[in-house]
User: Fold this.
Amino acid sequence: MLTTIKMWGFESHENELAFPCDQFVSFFDDIYYRGITISAKPENIFRWLCQMRIAPYSYDWIDNLGRKSPSKLTSGADKLKTGQNVMTIFELIDFVQNKYLTIRTKKNQVKSTTFGSAVISYVIIQKNNGTCRLLVKLVVNYPKGLYGKFLRFILPVGDLIMMRCQLLNFKKLSEQMETGK
Assistant:
């Protein structure tokens, strides 16, 4: 069951791929993999990933203090530079337009000291059939001590719940953009 929690939506071979976040982490406690197939062009999916600068697109009542994540693209959100804030507690550390973006928890954030530190890559892989795979690799270092041991059990479940919602939202919004609906 723990494997299912740490690997949602991933095809068996995808966890063997190299991810951009790998270059930023020399030691880690855990890895989570998330993936979803989206019927949209990479540039449409990437535009929605850039929206994470504005909102988290998961459960807004938890992650966004009740504010609804925008259902329309925010002008300028796709103008990326390393160091920009992403979903409040993360910073953008690497990206290639229409291919991937990589974020990490900012130092000295309450949530990062509460939940540990993480480096996350969102990677878009275009398929031949007009679809793309949006793959996410999340590399985690838990806080030290008893609390960190406790987080090893609850964080994978919490992340699965939140990221599943986020990826399903990106799928819906990207596909709506693709069809013009």
In short: The mean pLDDT is 88. The two ends are 38 Å apart (CA to CA).
